[in-house]
Design goal:
This protein is α/β, with parallel strands linked by helices. The protein is built from 8 helices and 7 strands; from the N terminus they run βαβαβαβαβαβααβα. It has helices spanning about 15-25, 45-50, 65-75, 95-105, 125-140, 155-160, 170-180, 200-220, and strands spanning about 5-10, 30-35, 55, 80-85, 110-115, 155, 185-190. The chain is globular and about 45 Å long.
Length: about 220
């Protein structure tokens, strides 16, 4: 099967080269696509020198739009599935094989990484936020998703063709899972190494929480 590995990147110059090197070592036969989402540092220049595919947004549009661009590219290139991971090295590329195995042997349409939140150096409020949002997404999707906020995941071609979230930023990934579950697509999870070095600012956290709540409320009274 053909795979495309997508890396949404925003001001990721310090970590991008190492990440691409490790991705190549983990899955040498897969294509790699970097979506530079309007970075203001040297991410674009660095990406162009790494020998990968690069798509650049002229301005920052949000992670959801970066993933939407990646999904469109994967479908255009005929990929059987897309594997997405963040550019900040909080996702260990060495776990890619577990996602592929769950897809090829287990028949899942979406495979989400499952971190051991309790063992991570994650502040208690962040742990509780992750648990609550995962329960909400599980309830709204009709499937158990232990770590709905993990951005390390595999998405099958069928899922990319059928699922079209409205969101454009952080909440895109949660909405994708809800829509996939409601469409009857199978969602699975695999354990991955737990890496945590902090996520954004408190202002960003409140904004992301507000966007998540707003998105989730759209589904509370929707039957499909």
């Amino acid at each position: 099967m053909d795979y495309l590995i997508a890396i949404p990147a925003y001001n990721a110059a310090p970590t991008l080269a190492e990440l691409v090197r490790r991705v190549r070592a983990a899955m040498p036969t897969a294509g790699i696509l970097i979506i530079d989402d309007g970075s203001t540092d040297s991410t674009a220049e660095l990406a162009n020198g790494l020998g990968t595919q690069v798509i650049r947004h002229p301005e920052n549009r949000g992670k959801g739009e970066a993933l939407r661009t990646a999904y469109a590219a994967a479908l255009e290139q005929g990929a059987a599935a897309l594997i997405q991971l963040d550019a900040d090295l909080q996702h260990a590329p060495e776990s890619i094989a577990q996602f592929v195995q769950a897809f090829e042997e287990g028949g899942a349409d979406v495979v989400v990484g499952r971190r051991d939140i309790r063992s991570a150096r994650m502040p208690k409020p962040r742990q509780w936020s992750n648990r609550i949002t995962s329960r909400v997404v599980s309830w709204l999707s009709g499937q158990r998703i232990p770590d709905s906020q993990c951005g390390f995941r595999l998405v099958s071609r069928r899922a990319m063709e059928q699922v079209h979230p409205r969101s454009s930023r952080f909440e895109f990934e949660s909405e994708f899972l809800i829509l996939a579950g409601r469409a009857g697509l199978r969602i699975d999870s695999v354990p991955i190494e737990t890496l945590y070095e902090g996520e954004g600012t408190s202002i960003r956290g409140w904004r992301d929480t507000f966007r998540f709540v707003k998105m989730a409320l759209r589904f509370v009274f929707r039957k499909t």
